[in-house]
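Re: that backbone. C-alpha cells:
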C-alpha cells in the first residue's frame, strides 16, 4: 500500500502550487480566489526508488457556510487517512492568527507533521521563517513552491520518513479512469459511490466541481486512479475565469488519463453536449466507456435502452466502438462493470499485432471485398502497425486518389471484427505507394 501525504493549511498559502510541483505539471487549478480547491485531490508521486500518494486539500477556514462545512469534513478525513501531514504556511505573511489553532489540531491528531514555510524564494529570506517556530513543530523546511526551491530536500525528508514502506513495484500499471460529462449528470456521485466515501463535494448547483479531482481507489485488490472533472458545457464561450480554468483542467486530465468514461443522464438522453465531449475524446484518441447514470429513475427500461442505442448511432456514431452501460451511482447498480471493462479495454488499446497477423488480415479483407474504381483495382501494397495506444496502422496503396472513404471504413471494421479492439479507437493512415516508401521502411 502507498503511504499517504496530505498538504494542509489555510486558503491561498500555495497548497495547490506545491501539489503541482510534486506532480510535475499544472494539475490543480490555481486562482487568487479563496476556495478554488474544494475537494481532496490525490496523485501518485515517484521519487527515485520510492512512491507515495500526495493529497491536495481545501483551505482550512473558519467560515461556517455549507460548502465550508463540506470542505472542513474533507480536510478532517484527509488528516485521519494520511501518514504524514505537510502543514503549509505563507512565509511572506508571517504567522496568521488562525494558524496556532490549526497547529493545535494537528498536534492532537498524533500525525507526523512537517511544517513547510512557503514563498521563501531566496536564502536571504530565510530570516522570515524564525517566527514559525512558535507553532511548536520539531521539523520545519522552507520552500518556494513556485520556483521549486528546496523541493529535493522536502522529497528526501518524506522518503526518509516513509522508509521501506515506500518501495513499490514500478511494473504495476495503475489505470487512470477519467469521468467526463456535462454538469450535474452525477460524475462526483459516481466517484463517491466507487470509493464508498464522500471524496467529491456533491451539490445540486452546477459548477460545484471546479477542478479535475484524482482519487485513489481499490477494486478487488487492484489499484486505480479515478479522475472526476468539472462539467463541460455545449458552448465555446466560458462565463468567467473559474469556468475557463475548469475546462482547461479537464483537458489536461484527459491527456493524462488511460480510459474515459462519458457519463450521461438517463432522464435527459444523449444530446449535443455529449456529442461535443465525445469529439474531445476522439481528438485525444482515448478508449471510452459510455455510462448512462441515474438508471434507477427510469421506469420503462426496455424502451429507454432502445432509445439510447438509437441516439448513440445518430449522435455518437464515431464512438460506436464504445461499450454502453446503464448504471446508478445512487444504488450502485452495475458500477462494477466499469472495472470489469477497464482492464480489457486498456489491453486492446495497447495491442500490437505481429506483421504476419496484419498481413493475413489485409489479404483476407481485400480478397473478400476488392475495390475497383474507374476500371482499376485498388491494391494495398504494404501494411504496418506504427504504434499502440491507440493502435495506429499505415497502408500504402497503388492509387491513393481512387481510395474511397467507405473502403477505409470497411478496412477498419474488418480489423475490429478480426482483432476485437474493444472500446478503443484505432487510427488508419493511407499513403501512395512508391518504391522509396519501401526502401525507407
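Recovered sequence:
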Amino acid at each position: 500500500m502507498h503511504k499517504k501525504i496530505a498538504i494542509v493549511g489555510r486558503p491561498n498559502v500555495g497548497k495547490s502550487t506545491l501539489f503541482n510541483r510534486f506532480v510535475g505539471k499544472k494539475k490543480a487549478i490555481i486562482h487568487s480566489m479563496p476556495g478554488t480547491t474544494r475537494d481532496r485531490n490525490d496523485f501518485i508521486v515517484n521519487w527515485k526508488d520510492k512512491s507515495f500518494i500526495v493529497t491536495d486539500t481545501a483551505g482550512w477556514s473558519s467560515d461556517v457556510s455549507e460548502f465550508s462545512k463540506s470542505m472542513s469534513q474533507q480536510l478532517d478525513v484527509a488528516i485521519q487517512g494520511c501518514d504524514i501531514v505537510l502543514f503549509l504556511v505563507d512565509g511572506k505573511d508571517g504567522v496568521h492568527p488562525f494558524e496556532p489553532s490549526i497547529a493545535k489540531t494537528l498536534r492532537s491528531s498524533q500525525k507526523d507533521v512537517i511544517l513547510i514555510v512557503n514563498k521563501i524564494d531566496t536564502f536571504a529570506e530565510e530570516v522570515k521563517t524564525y517566527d514559525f517556530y512558535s507553532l511548536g513543530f520539531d521539523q520545519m523546511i522552507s520552500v518556494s513552491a513556485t520556483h521549486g526551491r528546496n523541493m529535493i530536500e522536502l522529497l528526501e525528508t518524506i522518503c526518509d520518513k516513509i522508509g521501506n514502506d515506500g518501495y513499490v513495484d514500478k511494473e504495476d500499471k495503475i489505470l487512470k479512469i477519467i469521468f467526463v460529462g456535462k454538469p450535474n449528470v452525477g460524475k462526483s456521485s459516481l466517484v463517491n459511490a466507487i470509493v464508498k466515501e464522500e471524496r467529491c463535494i456533491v451539490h445540486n448547483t452546477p459548477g460545484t466541481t471546479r477542478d479535475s479531482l484524482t482519487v485513489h481507489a481499490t477494486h478487488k485488490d487492484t489499484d486505480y486512479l479515478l479522475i472526476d472533472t468539472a462539467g463541460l458545457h455545449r458552448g465555446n464561450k466560458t462565463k468567467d475565469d473559474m469556468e475557463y480554468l475548469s475546462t482547461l483542467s479537464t483537458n489536461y486530465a484527459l491527456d493524462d488519463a488511460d480510459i474515459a468514461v462519458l457519463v450521461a443522464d438517463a432522464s435527459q438522453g444523449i444530446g449535443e453536449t455529449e456529442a461535443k465531449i465525445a469529439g474531445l475524446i476522439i481528438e485525444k484518441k482515448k478508449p471510452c466507456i459510455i455510462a448512462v447514470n441515474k438508471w434507477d429513475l427510469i421506469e420503462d427500461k426496455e424502451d429507454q435502452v432502445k432509445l439510447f442505442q438509437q441516439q448513440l448511432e445518430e449522435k455518437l456514431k464515431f464512438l460506436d466502438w464504445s461499450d454502453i452501460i446503464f448504471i446508478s451511482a445512487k444504488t450502485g447498480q452495475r458500477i462494477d462493470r466499469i472495472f470489469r471493462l477497464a482492464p480489457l479495454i486498456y489491453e486492446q488499446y495497447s495491442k500490437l499485432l505481429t506483421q504476419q497477423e496484419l498481413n493475413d488480415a489485409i489479404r483476407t479483407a481485400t480478397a473478400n471485398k476488392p475495390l475497383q474504381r474507374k476500371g482499376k483495382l485498388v491494391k494495398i501494397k504494404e501494411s504496418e502497425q506504427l504504434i499502440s495506444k491507440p493502435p495506429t496502422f499505415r497502408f500504402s496503396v497503388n492509387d491513393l486518389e481512387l481510395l474511397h472513404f467507405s473502403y477505409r471504413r470497411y478496412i477498419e471494421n474488418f480489423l475490429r471484427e478480426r482483432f476485437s479492439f474493444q472500446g478503443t479507437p484505432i487510427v488508419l493512415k493511407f499513403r501512395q505507394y512508391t518504391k522509396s516508401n519501401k526502401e525507407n521502411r
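Residues 67 and 201 are 8 Å apart (CA to CA). The chain is about 35% helix and 25% strand.
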